[in-house]
Amino acid sequence: MALALPVVWAEAHRLHAPETGTWVGTPIPADEIPERADLIRAALEGAGAAVVDAEPHDDAALLEVHDAALVEFLAGAWDAWVETGLREEAGGAPVTAYIFPTPGLLAGVEAHVPASTAARTGAHAFDTMTPVGQGTWAAARAAVDAALTAADLVLAGEPAVYACCRPPGHHVTRSAYGGSCYLNNSAIAAQRLHAHGAARVAVLDVDAHHGNGAQAIFWERDDVLTGSVHVDPGAGWFPHFLGFADERGAGRGEGANLNLPLAPGSGDTEWLAAVEQLVAAARGHGSEALVVPLGVDAGAGDPNSPLEVTEGGFREAGRLLGSLGLPTVLVQEGGYDLDALGALVLALLEGFEGG
Q1: Are 350 and 47 in contact (CB under 8 A)?
Q2: What are the pLDDT digits (tens) for 162-172?
Q3: What is the domain count for the chain?
Q4: Can you point out the beta strands (E) in 94-141?
Q5: Could you read off the pLDDT of 245-291 as tens digits, one per residue?
Q6: From the centroid of its chain, how far is CA 37?
Q7: With contact defined as beta carbons under 8 Å apart, do 150 and 162 qualify?
Q8: Domain annotation covers residue 110
Q9: Is 75 part of a structural domain of the chain?
């Protein structure tokens, strides 16, 4: 049977095309590249999926989730980098932070806004591996448009829609970007569903790395359940400082955040047991709509994760998520094994429709 759910696509994803990344101060080949989205689209079209173009949306949707200062910075970072001569000084490098206003640096003093764009970047970025290039903002905005278009289609009656978002977004908090992410596509989609009729929404993240962005954004809310299965940050994996099981939310949101960290080397058995827990949590929450930040970097062979989930595991995870029977937006996040990427996304979506 052909894949029935629509696939939302934004051609502008190609404008974000980093050539290199930075890992512990060392230039490395970029892996969050345009080919990722192309491979996914080819696999889904090959399975009969209909592709629809993302529709433009106003920035107001961003500001329901992100601070205006972050949005303003990202929108103008490249131009400022070029106009102030920093691009030339940096040998043509993209916008990259070099100093961070950590609590230890500030020691209780309120930070001033730096004059230097290179310094100002550190007020909004939380790592050095997420460069802003000439087309990054346009691509990130297009990814948001894809997620919002998917949410709009679900609100109009589609049972489920997949947004082929690139760059990904699930690491972005209300005020800071990083982890190869710039705007939180999944959180923005969840807020859209909530604002237009779903009183309670679940965000169930199956990417190999902790969905810290949604956790931070919805930390004090109980109307949005955030859940994440991911490799244990305590074993040395991104985002290192958070993603632990004792993080449960605060205030009204206490108990509405569920982290399920897994040991490196975990495969289908452990991972699917955790996905089942996320699904059970959504049922207990009374969620009326679902957003799935769909990373497939938990796949065996992915260079960015030590998890060992098989194609069959992703298909079963899709079935479990689909068994909720909720209006659903699935938003692409990570996945860097180019040989397996398209097949793994397809497997989860096929499982979802079967569920």
Answers
A1: yes
A2: 999 999 999 99
A3: 1
A4: none
A5: 999 999 999 999 999 999 999 999 999 999 999 999 999 999 999 99
A6: 14
A7: yes
A8: no
A9: no
Alpha helices by DSSP H, listed for 180-322, are 185-195, 212-217, 268-285, 311-322
**Number of DSSP helices (H) and strands (E) in the chain, helices first:** 12, 10
CATH number at residue 49: 3.40.800.20
Provide the residue range defining the domain that includes 347. Answer: 7-67+142-354
| Residues linked to residue 343 through DSSP beta bridges, in sequence order | none
List active site positions.
171
CA–CA distance, 186 with 291 (Å, rounded to integer): 7
How would DSSP label each residue in 281-324? Answer: HHHHHT-SEEEEEE--TTBTT-TT---BB-HHHHHHHHHHHHTT
Tell me what the pLDDT averaged over the chain comes to.
Answer: 96
Residue 66 CB contacts under 8 Å (≥ 6 apart), including other chains: 172, 174, 175, 183, 184
The tens digit of pLDDT for each residue in 194-245 reads: 999 999 999 999 999 999 999 999 999 999 999 999 999 999 999 999 999 9
Question: How far is the C-alpha of 184 from the C-alpha of 63, rounded, in Å?
Answer: 11
Give the integer Cα–Cα distance in Å for 302 and 157.
35
Q: Which amino acid is at 337?
A: D
Q: What is the pLDDT of residue 343?
A: 98
